[in-house]
Amino acid sequence: MSAFLRDLKIGFRSLTAAPAATAIVVLTLGLGIGANTAVFSMVDALVLRPFPIPDIDRLVMLCGTVPAQGEDRDRASPADFLDWKEQSTVFERLIALEWWDVNLSGTGEPERLQGTFVSPDFLETLGVEPHLGRTLSPDAEEFGARTVVLSYQLFQRRFGGDPAVVGDTVRLDGESYEVVGVAREGFDYPYGSELWAPLWLDAKTAARRDVHYLNVIGKLRPGVGREDAQAELDILTGRIEKEHPVTNSGRGLRAVALARAVVDEGSPAFLVLWQAATVFVLLIACVNVANLLLARGADREKELSLQQALGAKRSRIVRQLLTENLLLSVAGAALAIPLAWAGIDVLRDGLPPEIQRFVVGWREIDLDLRVLGFTAAVTVVTTLVFGLVPALRASRSDLTAALREGGRGGSESRARQRSRTLLVVGEVALALVLLVASGLSIRGMLRLANGDHGYDPDGLMTFDIALPERKYEELEKRRQFFRAVLEGLRETPGVVAADLALVLPSSGNNYTRSVDVEGQTIANVSERQLAHFRVITTGYFETLRIPLLAGRAFGSEDREDTAPVAIVSQKFAERSWPGADPIGKRFRDSDEGPWLTVVAISGDVLHDWFLREPQPTYYLPFEQRPRLAMSLAIRTLGEPEAVTAAVRSQVRRADPDQPIFHASTMRQLISERIIGLRYAALVMGLLGLIALVLSDVGIYGLMMYSVSRRTHEIGVRVALGAERADVLRLAFGQALSITVAGVAIGLVLAYAAGRVMASNLFGVVRLEAGTFALLALVLGAVSLLAAYVPARRALSVDPAVALRAE
Question: 548 with 554: CB under 8 angstroms?
């Protein structure tokens, strides 16, 4: 310990003797370590442990699999859930969840809330303690009872934190529900839920196996692993498939750790990309620092050689140099922590609150002990990466050669020159990889934001409306409500067109159904083709400017008492009737449903970037299939937001208790859907910029050092008649060769990295030769510009001064 403390003292004195170089090293390491720390904090919170609840290792989500349809996260039918619950032995509890969007009215402005129907022991299973009152419980809830637990956020926002709300009633979809409790602060699973009510399955619903809408979570018994649970589930699904082949043939089941199941499918891929990019930044930083230490080692060669001559062992010198490097790393880590904290705040606060609540683990992003432990580990590794080679190289000094050089400072061993040059070549190559990765990410994001989606998003305002089922159980009442709203809006000044759709593109919602094409047979239900399902009003295609490629649009002749019709997308037509005219062909979307006659073919629409490309879609007329929840699409002459008041007025006129929600322009919808991509692209762009700066600093430092070491040589050349062009070529040639070699190697590595990105990032990234070429030219030009200043310095060498210094 005394020796280590002595090394620390010597190292500190050595570093403070060169404050400028020390500051550059600390800043460089701070950027590299800070970027890694900030990104790891997000990986830790969003992927590694996104759901901080008790016994989470014992919680699994049961996900259905349908290999014939490429589905591995399907929901469960009520009958299957009840069979699993009754027959399984590995679960302590098995609970079900159903999405429940509901209208809150009766007090203040009507509001649409996101809730969840849950098994009465749901909150107990997840270990959620109440903030006030009690949670739902099988012992306390009678079958059919309308009770509800509020989230802490809703309790504060809507009810002002008044404890008297517990025991009171609230009106949800026109029905009275008793508030029995308030959940603990911060709990809002699943997906930003604001209230929970008991899930009741009556006899008719409990017998259904043909609909899959329940999410199922199981809590394993103590001592039971996921492998044991999976083995039992395989037996159960096989038994149920034999008993119910019509509905369950080809269906499987897998137990997925809840901490993994709640993670958005796209998050891990992009976070891994970020983490890889920050590792590249740290490597580039380490290369810069290693180069600087190699240069310092050359300058200290005489000092270190004298120490060896006086009896210092090589291991002693290496230990002393590594101690200096450790001091640099610790100082860099100390700077990295506030930089990482600032970066986390920017990333965390930059995401809109309405998006944050849907990202499980977002609020847990912080610099906790796990993240600080990661920072410490990175610091140690960084010390070894950037410090070991320079320390070994510096400790291998030749005393005779060092003394012979005296004060010249003009000669550096070829091995050391080669090492420093190779490091900078590698630095340029890594920088190009990171630049290309960021460029491809940004290009992909811009393509999805501004590319052709199959419709015209400009000038469109959207709203969601959801009618309560009990109040609008009759289909004609639904028709009357939405007709009244549309008629009023179409007469509003500034409104060009107004129409309804079950779900709009980029809205985040979707409806998919299995379809049977007339004349085509399938072996079992699991082999049915899937298609996106839409219900629309007559002018929908014109309002969104989706082209009709053949046939006619829906019209007044498509009523509830006329033959059922449908419009199919081009993808649907090509898949179902390849090479044939689909007009007049028929299909249906349920076993008992009517056959639908195709009357038109529409253009394809990209519903969501996550799907990579437009999916087969079919459209049904609203008058024949009126739904409770519909979305408004309004095309305006002026600013789309200006119609919000008119929409709210028309809806209130039709039903005073009915709220509108999710008011947004179509451009905003698209932006929100790709906000994760935008974040990824912006972060990648920032990291690419840092890599560009660090690589240029490396070239600049190498050239400045090279010129300073060759001052005598340059002076001799000028004295012997060398022209300015010769001197410039001498100084600039090295930078040019380094840049060309680095760019060449970087292009190969960047292509490999691009291939990996393209195959793992859901089609966002495409390999574009123009992006590679442009960024290679940018990096080359900026690198050569960084070498220009040292080259100009070489031109200013005065032969007399250089020779006199010798």
Answer: no
Strand 111-118 with 195-198, pairing = parallel
* pTM of the predicted model as reported, rounded to 2 decimal places: 0.70
The strand pair at 111-118 and 91-105 is best described as: antiparallel
- Is the distance from CB of 224 to CB of 100 less than 8 angstroms? no
Listed as own residue / partner, the contacts of 308-317 with beta carbons closer than 8 Å and 24 or more positions apart are 308/395, 308/397, 308/399, 309/399, 314/395, 314/396, 317/391, 317/394, 317/395
Alpha-carbon span 30 to 592, nearest angstrom? 66
Q: Which two tokens stand for residue 612?
A: 């990579």
- Sign of torsion, CA 722 725 726 730? positive
* 74 bridge partner residues: 64
pLDDT of 507 strictly over 60:
yes
Would you say 696 and 780 are in contact if contact means Cβ atoms under 8 Å apart? no
* Phi and psi, residue 493, nearest 5°: -55, 140
**Residues near 756 by Cβ (< 8 Å), separated by ≥ 6?**
none
For the chain, the C-alpha Rg in angstroms (whole number) is 34
pLDDT at residue 543, as a whole number: 95
For the stretch 647-677, pLDDT in tens is 989 999 999 888 888 899 998 888 877 777 7
Do 454 and 798 form a contact (C-beta atoms < 8 A)?
no
Task: Tokens for 414, please give them.
Answer: 């070829």
Count of beta carbons in the 10 Å neighbourhood of residue 736: 14
User: Closest by alpha carbon to 426, among 662, 699, 231, 240?
Assistant: 699
Output the six-digit token pair for 786: 């960084």
User: Which are the contacts of 57, defined by CB distance < 8 A and separation ≥ 6?
Assistant: 257
Quote the pLDDT of residue 183.
93
| Token couple for 133 | 């009152």
User: How many Cβ atoms sit within 10 Å of the Cβ of residue 1?
Assistant: 5
Q: Is the pLDDT of residue 196 over 90?
A: yes
Q: Environment class of residue 645 by beta-carbon count within 10 Å: exposed (0-12), middle (13-18) or buried (19+)?
A: exposed
Residues 435 and 413: their CA atoms lie apart, in Å, by 33
For residue 668 the two structure tokens come to: 């905003």
The residue to which tokens 């037509």 are assigned = 573
Q: Are 543 and 633 within 8 A, CB to CB? A: yes
State how beta strands 629-636 and 529-536 pair.
unpaired
Phi and psi dihedrals of 117, rounded to 5? -80, 130
- Interhelix angle 301-309/314-350, nearest 10 degrees: 140
Q: State how far the Cα of 500 lies from the Cα of 539, in Å rounded to an integer.
A: 9
Residue 401: band (very low, low, confident or very high) from pLDDT cuts 50, 70, 90: low
Nearest to 507 by CA among 688, 627, 725, 663: 663
Report the C-alpha gap between 630 and 620 in whole angstroms.
Answer: 13
Is residue 501 within 8 Å of residue 669, measured between CB atoms? no
Within 10 A of 318 (CB to CB), how many other CB atoms are there? 17
Q: What is the secondary structure of 371-400 as a DSSP string?
A: HHHHHHHHHHHHHHHHHHHHHHHHHS--HH
97-155: pLDDT as tens digits: 998 888 888 777 788 888 999 999 998 898 888 999 999 988 888 888 899 999 999 99
CB atoms within 10 A of CB 516: 20
Please count the other Cβ atoms lying within 10 Å of the Cβ belonging to residue 765: 25
Structure confidence at residue 221 (pLDDT): 93
**Which two tokens mark 763?**
């089609």
Say if residue 716 is exposed, middle or buried (CB neighbours under 10 Å; 0-12, 13-18, 19+).
middle
C-alpha distances (whole Å) from 672 to each of 50, 270, 505, 609 are: 21, 16, 12, 11
* Count of Cβ atoms closer than 10 Å to residue 231 Cβ: 12
Per-residue confidence band for 96, with pLDDT thresholds at 50, 70 and 90: very high
Instruction: Give yes or no for residue 627 having a pLDDT over 90.
Output: yes
- The reply to whether omega before 190 is within 30° of 0 (cis) is yes
**Residue 669 host element (H or E):** helix 666-673
Give the bridge partners for 602, in sequence order.
548, 569
